[in-house]
Amino acid sequence: MRIDLHAHSTASDGTDTPAELVRHAAAAGLDVVALTDHDTVGGYAEAVAALPAGLTLVTGAELSCRLDGVGVHMLAYLFDPQEPGLARERELVRDDRTPRAQAMVGKLRDLGVDVTWEQVARIAGEGSVGRPHIATALVELGVVATVSDAFTPDWLADGGRAYAEKHELDPFDAVRLVKAAGGVTVLAHPAAVKRGRCVPESAMAELAAAGLDGIEVDHMDHDSGTRARLRGLAADCGLLTTGSSDYHGSRKTCRLGEYTTDPEIYGEITRRATGAFPVPGAGGRVR
Question: Helix or strand or coil: residue 74?
């Protein structure tokens, strides 16, 4: 089985619609793909309706968190999307995304960049607006060459010149809320240093003690040494290890299935989840 547990659609900051995402996942030879848009479950229905035979969909989300001033992304899988506590927190984060993005546009304009809110809103479309949409605007304007080049201290990185804060969950609260919704938690790209500051390994161990299920080890932003170190940490802490593409369509260079998760790990994730079930085949219902 080929299993990719981290992919984004136009419901947040990907360039594939949810329907296109599942079709592309099947074409890439995947057996399982997870839809993990940022702080939203808005793409579920379309993805399920378009699900090709032979492909299983894992419903999820990538939750925006912050610990001691450091941004943390928490992958949440197979939770009940209607559970009130987690739904309320997702709504708070989403509601803060637009004013935060507008603040970053204002800072960029103060820096002499001729970006407009209308341009960013056009790029975001119906998706949950975020920094990748602003980064795409900077690419369109020729300010940077790629979306990744915008995530530097000069521009949009945490603490960068055009950075603005938004409402974010404490990751310990995120673990608790996802558990209460019957889901499974995996810390996304925990050592992606090129994105900015990362939480220390001691914090990962504390999260494991608080109920974190796993860490994303095989990821394009982790070199081989980092992956080996994270596998050792996971073994010490009793954490599952996953691999994923973090696919964003044409917005990033990663390909669906570029990194994958071991089938036994996937089986353990589905065994632990009680909030929802993977959806197989050509359509289905998300519980």
Answer: strand
Helix orientation angle between 117-124 and 131-140, rounded to the nearest 10 degrees:
110
Question: pLDDT per residue over 172-223, tens digit each?
Answer: 999 999 999 999 999 999 988 777 678 999 999 999 999 999 999 999 999 9
> Does residue 285 surpass a pLDDT of 60?
no
- The residue assigned the tokens 């994270």 is 230
Tokens of 245: 């593409």
Element (H, E) at 177: helix 171-180
Neighbours of 202 (CB within 10 A): 8
The whole-angstrom separation of Cα 110 and Cα 190 is: 32
Between CA 96 and CA 161 the distance in angstroms is 19
**Are 22 and 16 within 8 A, CB to CB?**
no
Please tell me the distance from the alpha carbon of residue 3 to that of residue 267, in angstroms, as a whole number: 11
Single-letter residue type at 50: A
Any residues with CB less than 8 A from the CB of 22 and at least 6 apart, and which? Answer: 33, 35, 47, 50, 51, 52, 55, 57
What tokens were used for 171?
A: 């990751």
